[in-house]
Write a sequence for this structure.
């Protein structure tokens, strides 16, 4: 990969040159990523510059002492994005077709919710607005429910649990017919964590990786069978 930094004092035209360079490289058929640093966050002019870069670059990463984010000019899978998030709880807004986590359904009085897979719902809530917000006690109860019953499956649809889709497994968990620990993709002898988040993978892939890595490790002096930990620093 080629890379260059454009540096200089304020108002020396860094963004102007950067935008011109990105347009030029993009015009040559290259995918260009932009990384923008700001000491002051991205609420003001720096944010506007970043928005402009988003219009012409394939991806834009921005970081400041108070905020960092990455955007792409295309869809990425949720599985790609979640390991970057480094959080305790994920609240996903939208994603009706994502069937590997439970949901709460927002309903209007006259609404037909069949298209929103009610079998995946922990609870339904009446529609609300900013002027008509949910009651504080309802939000507290929802937070308690999320901490007690919220979960995330790897979303591989690998069929190892006997269901064709993770969505069916989620429905069975909510119906009390299965447990999260029954997901075979999270239940193998091998675990991989990325930024502290455990990644799910197909048991077949796990077996292949495990066998391959073990075979390589056996060639190393000092190898003894048992629990093995491999830590990759700054993997890219
Ligand atoms: S084993 Fe896990 S990842 Fe595979 S289909 Fe079942 S729930 Fe989904």
């Amino acid at each position: 990969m080629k890379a260059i930094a454009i540096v200089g004092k304020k108002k020396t035209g860094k963004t102007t040159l950067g935008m011109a360079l990105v347009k030029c490289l993009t015009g040559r058929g290259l995918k260009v990523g932009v990384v923008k640093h700001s000491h002051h966050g991205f609420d003001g002019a720096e944010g506007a510059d970043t928005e402009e870069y988003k219009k012409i670059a394939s991806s834009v990463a921005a970081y400041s002492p108070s905020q960092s984010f990455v955007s792409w000019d295309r869809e990425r899978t949720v599985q790609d994005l979640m390991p970057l998030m480094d959080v305790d709880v994920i609240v996903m807004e939208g994603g009706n077709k994502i069937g590997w986590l439970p949901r709460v359904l927002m309903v209007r009085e006259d609404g037909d919710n069949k298209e929103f897979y009610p079998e995946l719902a922990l609870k339904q809530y009446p529609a609300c607005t900013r002027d008509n917000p949910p009651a504080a006690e309802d939000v507290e109860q929802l937070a308690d429910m999320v901490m007690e019953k919220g979960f995330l499956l790897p979303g591989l649809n690998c069929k190892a649990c006997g269901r064709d889709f993770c969505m069916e497994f989620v429905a069975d968990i909510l119906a009390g017919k299965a447990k999260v620990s029954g997901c075979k993709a999270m239940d193998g002898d091998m675990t991989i964590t990325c930024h502290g988040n455990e990644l799910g993978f197909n048991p077949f892939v796990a077996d292949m990786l495990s066998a391959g890595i073990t075979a390589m490790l056996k060639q190393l002096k000092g190898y003894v069978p048992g629990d093995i930990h491999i830590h990759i620093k700054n993997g890219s």
Remarks:
- The radius of gyration is 23 Å.
- The beta strands are 33-37, 59-63, 68-72, 103-107, 121-126, 192-194, 197-199.
- The helical segments are 14-27, 45-56, 78-81, 136-149, 166-174, 203-218.
- Residues 153-154, 156-161, 163, 166, 169, 183-185, 200 surround iron/sulfur cluster (CB under 6 Å).
